[in-house]
Amino acid sequence: MVNITSRQWRWLLLVAILCLATATRVHDLDLRSLWEDEGWTLVLAEGPSLSDVARRMAYDQHPPLYFMIFRLWEDVTGSSEFSLRYLSVLTGIVGVAGMYQLGKTAFNTSIGLLAMLLLALWDHHIDLSQDARHYSQLATLIILSTWFYFRLITPNQTRHHLRVNSALYLLLSSALLYSHYLGGFVLICHAIHMLLFVRPLAHLRWCLFVFISVCLSFLPWLPIVIRQNQVRWETPLYYLNSLPNNHNTYLMVRDALLGKQYALFGFFIIWGLFVVFTQSAWRTRWIT
After folding, report:
1. Is 136 inside any structural domain?
2. Which of 16, 19, 55, 147 could form a disulfide with 102 if both were Cys (CB 3.0 to 4.6 A apart)?
3. Total tally of structural domains belonging to the chain
4. How far is CA 122 from CA 65, 96, 139, in A?
5. Ramachandran angles phi, psi of 135, nearest 5°
6. Helix spans in 27-130 (H)
7. SS3 call for 64
8. In a structure prediction context, what are the per-residue pLDDT tens digits for the chain, which is 288 residues long?
9. Cα 147 to Cα 98: distance, rounded to the nearest angstrom
10. Nearest one of 54, 57, 63 to 177, comparing CA atoms
11. What is the dihedral of CA 223, 225, 231, 232, to 10 degrees?
12. Side-chain half-sphere exposure of 140, counting CA atoms within 13 A
């Protein structure tokens, strides 16, 4: 009888979940034709060079990274529905694997496996992974950036590990900003958590230096972001925004993402903050 160690069981579970994630994302990948937004991906990724793609994106409402990668991908794999969407499949699978590392780093191995399984089976993530759009890349970079954020803020690590974690957090977070502007809200959450919980102060200063470096990496594209909000609505390259960039639109997006159960949502926010602060206080009291 072969004795299987806990580590071997963990690897078997990891492989099984990744196979499950792959199967659910590849299944019927080319069943439907490209829809409108996927067609816009093809239009925006056209051009003889990557610089042409970047210039075209300056008149759109998105940053350029995904569309530049998509252009290279299309040159290699062709333009069938399956091949164009498979880029999102791959990034989705990487996100599922990254979720294990994020859960393991933030909590423990069991939480990492559970989070990985839930993401592998989440229908919304499966849909994003079957779309020739940048949302699968956005989700994966959020996961990987947050994973290396937790590695970055870990105290008492060796200088080598600190440098590696800092470099990878800088790279992944910068890629997140250049993939979708909503990634900036995730980085704001990183900054708030950093200011509240990262100690000692010497380590906090280093983490802030890395975070500021991420912000500085976005400066070359910042004037284009401002221009996109002006040009896109007033003199667009292709068509007007379906919704104006104003307060009412953001209220509509808030209701679509969070619903209208404000009291319940507020309760969970307050309860989560209470749990975080009480656990932090308990750990501080236990250590001292």
Report:
1. yes
2. 147
3. 1
4. 26, 10, 13
5. -75, -35
6. 36-44, 50-57, 65-77, 81-106, 109-121, 123-129
7. coil
8. 556 788 899 999 999 999 999 999 999 999 999 998 999 999 999 888 899 999 989 888 899 999 999 999 999 999 999 999 999 999 999 999 999 999 999 999 999 999 999 999 998 899 999 999 999 999 999 999 999 999 999 999 999 999 999 999 999 999 999 999 999 999 999 999 999 999 999 999 999 999 999 999 999 999 999 888 766 545 555 545 566 777 888 888 777 766 677 787 788 888 878 887 787 666 555 545
9. 8
10. 63
11. 170
12. 23
With contact defined as beta carbons under 8 Å apart, do 36 and 135 qualify? no
Asked if residue 63 has a cis previous peptide bond (ω within 30° of 0), the answer is: no
Q: Which domain holds residue 34?
A: 6-245
Separation of first and last alpha carbons in the chain: 49
274 in any annotated domain? no
Among 70, 227, 54, 197, which Cα is nearest to 135's?
70
| C-alpha separations of 52 from 36, 137, 227, 231 in Å | 22, 21, 17, 18
Q: How far apart are CA 171 and CA 165, in angstroms?
A: 10
DSSP sequence for 165-197:
HHHHHHHHHHHHHTT-TTHHHHHHHHHHHHHHH
DSSP-derived letter for residue 128 is: H
Four-residue CA torsion sign, 224, 226, 232, 236: negative
Residue 43 included in any domain = yes
Concatenating the DSSP letter of every residue in 190-217 gives HHHHHHHH--SHHHHHHHHHHHHHHHHH
> At 63, which amino acid appears?
P
